[in-house]
Amino acid sequence: MLIYNKRIILIFKLIGPAVSLISFIFAVYNIRFNNRKKLIDEFTVAKAFLEDLDNLKNKFVIEKGYQAIAGSDRFDIDVIKHLLLFPNPSRALKDYRHAYRLFKKHRENGRLKFKWRFRPLWVRKSLAVFYFLKYWLSGMAIFYAVVSPFYIPKFVINFFILLGVEQNHISLL
Question: How many CB atoms are closer than 10 A to CB 65?
Answer without folding.
Answer: 20
